[in-house]
Amino acid sequence: MNKHYPNNVSNLFSDSDNMNKQSKHSGGGGGMEERIARLESDVEYIKRDISEIKTDLKDFKKSTDDSFKRIDDQFKGVAAEFKGVTAEFKGVTAEFKSVRAEMASEFKNVRAEIAEVRVSIASQTNKLMAFMLAVGGLIVAAIKYL
Fold it and tell me: What is the spatial distance between Cα 121 and Cα 116, in angstroms, rounded to a whole number?
């Protein structure tokens, strides 16, 4: 049998010698009643601490729930704003495409007009050259005639 734990419980506390031997190995001093009282006291402190921890956790949960709700609400607001901006952007994009198509058409018209003006200038230049040649011929004929 283990020398620290006698088989007969009644011998455990029969004299102070056994109490001193037991207290050296149990980690605490005093009699069983003192040890039980200390354990009961410790259990009460543990219960109190657990109760405080539960309260703190409930407060923390409420606080984080509130924070996450605010963040979620803000996110929803940002998402709604983003949808609005996206819709505006789509409208601007459509308008830009329309303006671009209109500008392409107008540039095509301007190029056609420039081509017409070039043809007209070339034609007028040819007519002017012909006129000048005719006038030059008349001048030469008039000089010869005089």
Answer: 8
Q: How many CB atoms lie within 10 A of CB 22?
A: 19
- Do residues 63 and 56 touch, judged by C-beta distance below 8 A? no
User: Cα dist. 88→74, 85, 93, 102 in Å?
Assistant: 21, 5, 8, 21
For residue 85, pLDDT over 70 is answered with yes
**Residues 23/30, Cβ–Cβ less than 8 Å:** yes
Instruction: Measure the CA–CA gap between 72 and 79, rounded to whole angstroms.
Output: 10
pLDDT exceeds 80 at position 14? no
CA distances to 52, 76, 115, 119, 136 from 129, rounded to whole Å, are 110, 77, 21, 15, 10
Alpha-helical (H) ranges within 1-146 are 9-12, 16-26, 32-145
Look at residue 43 in the predicted model and tell me its pLDDT.
96
pLDDT tens for residues 66-78?
999 999 999 999 9
* pLDDT, tens digit, 9 for 90 and up, residues 26-42: 555 568 999 999 999 99
